[in-house]
Each structure stands twice: as structure tokens, then as C-alpha cells.
Amino acid sequence: MKDAILRTLRFLGLGFLEPVVRLAAGEDSKKNTIEILKKIVAPIASILLFLGVWYTGSKSLFNTEANYTIEKARKEQGQVEADKVKACIESGDLSCQPNTLPSPSQVWASYKLLLKDHNTITADKKAFKLRTAALNEKRVAQGKEPIVYTGRPSFVDQIKTSIKTVFAGFLLALLIATPIGIIIGLSETLRTSFNWLIQILKPVSPVVWLLLVFMIVKTMTKDATGDTSFIISFISVGLCSMWATLVNTAMGVSSVDKDYINVAKVLKLGALQKIFKVILPASLPLIFTGLRITLSVAWMVLIAIELLAQSPGLGSFVWEEFQNGANDSNSKIIVAMFVIGFIGFLLDRIMLTIQKFISFDKNEGI
Amino acid sequence: MGFLVKNGALETKKMETKAILQEKFPSKEVLLDLQNLKKVYPTPNGDYVVLEDLNLQVKKEEFITIIGHSGCGKTTMLSMIAGLNEISDGKISVLGSSIKGPGPDRGVIFQSPSLMPWMTALENVMLGVNQVFPHGTKKEREDICRYYLSKVGLEGAFDKRASELSQGMQQRVGIARAFAIKPKVLLLDEPFGMLDSLTRGELQDVLIEIWNKEKITAVMITHDVDEAIFLSDRVVMMTSGPRAKIGDILPIEFQRPRSRKAVLAHEDYYAYRKHLIDFLEH
């Protein structure tokens, strides 16, 4: 039982909970208490330290900004006005708060606000669906387009869109880069002849990829009515992020242990058998390392691309909030920052777990 | 004792080894024939000749070992027979027809076990058997693999992944894989070189036991003089490179099947041993 729990925890990357399980099972209490201090208490302390630094920093920025505003009011409009501004800031009235780095509590408040907003919009959507259900049925029967909800997307909707885009892009990268990587890895001639292209295209900025994709997709989808911004952003994400997989796959395939190749030669395995039974399994660890890098790069460039392509998602959320300049905009941006970081971390964990699961070398990757 | 020495006079045989051997096995045909074999590696400072004028005939059902100093070209020669290394000049033929590249008529047991770590022991052996017996049913092919894996003492480990097996057990799978494809020639490149001496002894017994049943013509490289005497019918000594060739051939006259104890106790054992060591220290 205990061992099963430990194995599951380790598999999920939650190995740091191990001493808690061991302590609960009544094992060596002194050693496990020290382990808990090291693996759980110390990280929690680091989180508190981080929050403390953030709080102090935002407080001091807030004061600087507030003093500046008050001084400015005094110089330009006199003491009476300055006192008014000061009183306004101290009262906590949203209309006159200084615009600077928000404190942790403000960010938390914004997070809750965004969730509430999401619930309102979801309820609204549901109500809309109920209202239009009968009408839509009729419209479909008449061969007309059904009416769809066109309200503002909530924060959670934006997250979903972003994840959808990143997966579409990742899938595209996977489908393009792995087969090409394998083919290039197998043939030294191809490798040397296409190396220049890969080396030149690899460092190209996401912005340029976006523009390139835009040029092509814009023309190709002239007659289409669908969502071109989604197409543009996921293709750009795929093109930006596929290089790590391409290079790693080619390297993995070309550097398969010579012993395995010799065995395949001596047994006279056919080309397909050689590729699928020997070369691919042998290069899987490297291919997966490439895919992991690809997914994290995809997530990273996604935000920038959404921001530029005006396609919905976390990137455009951040940009709109910045342009909006409302009182809680800054704290919403910070919420988005944490959500982006957390999802990126989660995606990497998922890839690591899959990699552990299918790779023959169980020690590969950290 | 289960064996005799047919001819005690060792000294006379050393003189004209080839002639005597032809007399001794008049009926047995030459299975593996190396003629004027040459291997040249081009280097920036001109060609480096590893092997030159190398001639060797191996008879059917004969077990020969090759000893020589490190770097003399033994492995080069073996990989040329396996077809993994190009022949610069001369000819290698198996049953009269020259070899073209590698093929399952020449099974190889490599120095490192070279198993696919992501496959089970059975799948590793199956990889070769599938190639050689493509027309058998899956059950028949699996039975062949199970038979050979049992022969090397791996009854309980059919479905273990190769990466979970110890080095010695992996090399057992390597032996089973090589025998299971029923090659005409078995090539062994220092197969026990990476094992500790205890495991090495065990594996020599495993190898010779399965070989006694199958009698597949074998060429084995070794550094171990005792291993060479225990296993082989003839020990081929190679001169040091460059331009290595065959320096001497020593027939080992112990009758088969051999037991290690009896071989070690035999009066000729030390004469054979001295002959080989004298050559190597020369």
C-alpha cells in the first residue's frame, strides 16, 4: 500500500511528499521530520519570502507614486487640492489609486474578480442558449445559420483558447518535424544539404514567422469564412517551435548506438523493420527531449503571437488589459502572468511523465 | 575420463600443421575460406596496412580461436568475415561462394551484448528468427526462441526486458540469438571479455554445451589462453600489426565433449599453454 502510494507520487512528479507518507506509516520519525523540513517546509518558506519581497517592493513603489501625485497636485493646484488627493488615496477609493506594481493582495482580489466574471459570463451564455434553443432549431430546419453567443469571452475562456492554440501548434510541429527529422537523420547527404536551411530558419523571431504566415494564409483563405486569426496563430506557433524537435530527432536518429545498427545489419533487417524496431526506439529519448522543448517554446511564443495576431487568448488578454489602463488592469496582468507560468510548468510535467512512460531508459530526463 | 589424446607427440605437429590437418580431416570440406586477405586504412600519412596475405581455411564443424596482441587486427578480420567491414583485397568465401555484405548465414556474438534494451529477451531473439524463418507460424518461431533461451539457462526470463538483465545474462541472450538463426558460421568477438572471471567460466560452459549439440563452425577471438585451449580445435596465432598475418596454428587434440576439470588435469595442457604464451611473449 505504502509502496504503491510512493510509486504513484514519484510517477506524478510529487516525490517531495514522500517523507510525509513515510512518517504517516510510522517510519524513522527523526529522519523523515528532517526530510519534511528540507523538502516541504523550506520551499514554503521560500514562497513566503517571495511574497514578502513582492509586498515590500509594491508598497514602496506605491508610496513613491502617491507622493509624486500629491506633490504634483500641490505644485499645480495648491495645498487644498493636494490634501484632497491625499485623502482620496488614503480612503482607498479606486478612482484615484496610483498606477504601479500591484501588491499580492490586489492580485488575489483580481483573481477572484476574474473568476466571478467568468461565472457571470457562463451563466449568461447558458441563459442565451436556452433562450435561442427553439429559434435555432427552426433556423437550422430552414437551412439558416444558427445564432451564436457573441459576448465578451471570460478569462477562463481565454485560457482555453490559448491551450487549444498551443496544442494545435504543437501537433503541427510534431507532424512536420518528427518525420522530417527522421528522414534527415537517416541520410547524411540530406543532412548536409539541408543543414544551412535549418540553421538559418531556427533563430528567426516569432514575429517574423507570424508575418510570413500572415502573408500566405491571408491569400489562401480569401474565400473562407472561418476564423483565420486562429489558423495564423497556430501555424506560427508550430513553425516557431518545431526546430528543437527537428534538430533533436535528426541527431537522435543519426547517432543511434553503432552496436544496434550492426545487429540490424547482421540480421539483415528490412528498411522498415530497421527504422521501427531499432532506430526509432533507440532515438526516442532524444526525440522526446526535443518535443518537451518544443512544447515549452510553443507556449512561450504563443503569448507574443496572440498579442500581435489579435487572436483571442491569454496574449490578447494581457495586451487589452494593458491598453485598457483601468485601475485593476495591472493586477489582472499579474494574474495572467502567474497563470501563464503555471500552465507552462504543467505542460512540461505532462511531457516528462509521458516521456518516462514510453522511454526505455527510465533514468532519462529530469 | 571422457577423453583421450590421439597423438601425444606435440612437437612433430608444430612443424607442418596444415599438412597434418588435411590428413586429419580428409573428409571434411572447407566451410570458411580466407584467401590473401588484405585490409588497408587510408591515413593522411599514407596507407596503413592492417592485414596482408592472410590465408585461413576453416573446416566444417570446426571451432577455432584467434589470439594475438591488442590492435593486431583480429577484430578487423572478424568484422570483415561478418561483412561489416569492407575487404581491401583478397577473398572471403563461405561454402565456395564469396560473401557480399553482412547476412544471417554468419551469426555474430558481439563483445558487448548489443541487445535492444527496450525489447524483452524473447523479442530480441525473435528479431533474428523472424528474418530467417519468415514462413513459420508465430508459435513455431516463438518455440524456437524459447528452446534456445532455455538452452542458455534463461527459462524464467523470457519476458524480462534486456535492460533489466545482468551483463552475463544479456550475453546469454546474445548467444541464444546467434544460435537461433542457425548460421553456417558463428563469429564471436571476445564475447566474454567484459565479464568477471566467474561468470566467464559459466558462460564458456553454456557456449560449449550448446555448441556440442549444434556443431556450428565457429571463429572466436579471445585474449584468454585458457579459454582458447578449452574451447577450440585449433588456436590461430596472429602476428602483431601492421601487416598482420597468421603466425602459427596450434591444434588442440582433446576429445570432445570436454570437461573443464579433465582438460586442466591433462598432461598436454601445460605444453599447449606454454606454446601459446611463448608465441605471445615473443
Please give a handful of descriptors for the protein shown.
heterodimer; A: 366 residues; MetI-like fold; 13 helices; 0% strand; B: 282 residues; alpha/beta; six-stranded mixed β-sheet; four-stranded antiparallel β-sheet; 10 helices; 10 strands; globular; disordered N terminus
Give a verbal description of the structure:
The complex is a heterodimer of chains A (366) and B (282). Chain A has helices at 2-11, 18-24, 29-77, 79-91, 104-141, 155-186, 188-201, 206-220, 228-254, 258-266, 271-309, 314-324, 329-358. Chain A has 366 residues and is mostly helical. Chain A folds into three domains: 2-96, no CATH class; 102-147, no CATH class; 153-358, Orthogonal Bundle (MetI-like fold), CATH 1.10.3720.10. Chain A is globular, with a radius of gyration of 27 Å. By secondary structure, chain B is of the alpha/beta class. Chain B contains ten helices and ten strands. Chain B has helices spanning 10-15, 17-24, 74-82, 121-132, 138-151, 167-180, 197-214, 225-231, 260-265, 269-281; strands spanning 30-43, 46-59, 63-67, 89-94, 97-98, 106-109, 185-189, 217-221, 234-238, 246-251. The longest helix of chain B is centred in the last third of the chain and has 18 residues, at 197-214. The interface between A and B is medium-sized, with 16 and 23 residues.
